[in-house]
Write a sequence for this structure.
């Protein structure tokens, strides 16, 4: 079985969206909750469809659980990365000392 492959940048609903990562569906749903709580819109792309919302029933009943692409609008990319903690653990302290 071949792993899912998703483009880094796509045009979706008239806007440019950027892929944050390709990851298992359940992990992506957790990231989506973090993004949503921070006010960032996200969308999941499975090999079959785009999902703006993922009803719990779909996950519980065995909807697609493989690797998905997690996308955010390009204009919200920096905020999304901040919310997910990207680049926070670079070993430096607040005063710039490592």
């Amino acid at each position: 079985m071949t792993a899912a492959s998703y483009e880094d940048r796509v045009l979706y609903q008239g806007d440019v969206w950027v892929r944050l990562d390709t990851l298992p569906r359940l992990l992506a749903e957790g990231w989506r909750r973090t993004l949503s709580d921070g006010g960032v819109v996200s969308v999941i792309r499975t090999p079959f469809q785009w999902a703006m919302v993922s009803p719990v029933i779909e996950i519980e009943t065995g909807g697609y659980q493989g690797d998905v692409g997690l996308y955010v609008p390009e204009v919200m990319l920096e905020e999304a990365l901040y919310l997910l903690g990207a680049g926070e653990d670079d070993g430096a302290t607040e005063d710039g000392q490592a």
Notes: The longest helix spans residues 25-37. Residues 35 and 80 are 6 Å apart (CA to CA).
